[in-house]
Amino acid sequence: MAAAAAAAAAAAAAVAAAAAAVRAWRGSRLSVAALLALLALALLALTAGRGGSGSGVRQPGSPPPLLPPGLREELRQRRHDLRRLEAAAGGGEAATGGLGCGDLSLATGISVLGWGFTKVVARAALAGGGAVALKSVHGAGREVRQCVQRYGAPAGCRRLAAYKLLKEVTLLQRLRHPGIVQLHGQCYDNSGDPEIRVTAMLELGSPLEMIQLLQTPWEERFKICLSLVKLLLYLAHSPLGSIVLLDFQPRQFVMVDGNLKVTDMDDASTEELSCKEDNDCILDFPTKSFPLKCSAVGKCEGINEKKNLFNAYRYFFTYLLPHSAPSALQPFLSDILNATGDLRYGINETLNAFEKVLHLYKSGLYLQKRPLLLKAFSNNTYLLGFRMVEGEDYKCWPSYSHLGCLLSVHSAEEAAAICNSQSQCQSFIITQQRSWTGELGQT
């Protein structure tokens, strides 16, 4: 008993040391070989306090280590979940991606971008050009550490974490949508347990920074919310059934070429809550609860869709939609916020409401009737910039440029009205740049 306790304590200490080593990698640039060597050192550190019983690599012919009953049950549940998901996905065509272990071995410029509860993420430059994000099990991450503290079995704990990455790969192979990060390939290292040594190669994005988003023009923030609604519509009717993002947080998303994409799918679920009566179908959030119906087949109707939608409301719509929106669109945006905040809208009705706002904005119907002001600028409209005095740029906020005032306008008349409303503005230019809605650029 004392020996087991000492071994568990040594394993926990080794895990802490491995975690410290991982933190030291962050931002460093490594070769693939160096990165894998460091990952291996972290994994070895996990087993240092266990002797041979917790080792992640067995000697040929040796029996598998006996795992604690609780860990065996957790492994069984995750294995069952993965097999069920693979069976559900079996009817469709899988997108396997074109990259494999050979491409991974030739990649260079590896740098650790960050890590989470289960996985570590790195950036890698491909030999043929371009870059990808590499995801692998974080051997010194919190999930493995807590598991080791509970069970004292590092190899089994790494396998438990690996099932989440395998699940994510399976989902990304089947789900194809512009709002889901693309799977470029995967590598299973046959030198060890393939359930442990798996690396996913994904589309590379940049972390979503909400503070930065709040400083962008309203049109760009509306685009992000609209793309999120389209993603949730796809998830509600995906090839695998209705999918809920159980860990719905801004940190689960990245920006790729100005587009919002969900990048973490390991906590997604295709299961809808089972029920016997309506009282079993209460959708709870920290500040609100919503009663739902129990269907004839014993499932809470629309619970996955509604959970995603309310999370989109509280994490994205509330902050990104109303601020600095055109005044004529404010009532429509308030309707969206109220209806999604009370879950009176489903995802279809929400998309319809967004598309109505988009139509009003693109067509210019949102513009309030005002006196024609363009003639006041007729002598210099297309020659001078949006400036206070000659040679000095006029700055406004929010702007597409930090160096001056670059706004999106529907017409030169709208530009004239904006300039006329600002005492510092003396003139403006209509540029050839166009936004994603086709609006003109104004500086």
UniProtKB/TrEMBL annotation:
One of its GO terms (cellular component) is extracellular region. Keywords: ATP-binding, Developmental protein, Differentiation, Glycoprotein, Golgi apparatus, Kinase, Membrane, Nucleotide-binding, Osteogenesis, Phosphoprotein, Protein transport, Secreted, Signal, Transferase, Transmembrane, Transmembrane helix, Transport, Tyrosine-protein kinase. The keyword Glycoprotein applies. It comes from Amazona collaria. It comes from the Eukaryota. Residues 52-71 are annotated as: Disordered. Its EC number is 2.7.10.2. It is an enzyme of class 2 (transferase). The keyword Metal-binding does not apply. The lineage of its organism: Eukaryota, Metazoa, Chordata, Craniata, Vertebrata. One of its GO terms (biological process) is cell differentiation. It is found in: Golgi apparatus; Secreted. The chain crosses the membrane at residues 30-49. Residues 107-383 form the Protein kinase domain. InterPro entries: FAM69_kinase_dom, Kinase-like_dom_sf, PKDCC, Prot_kinase_dom. It catalyses: L-tyrosyl-[protein] + ATP = O-phospho-L-tyrosyl-[protein] + ADP + H(+). This is Extracellular tyrosine-protein kinase PKDCC. GO terms for molecular function: ATP binding; non-membrane spanning protein tyrosine kinase activity.
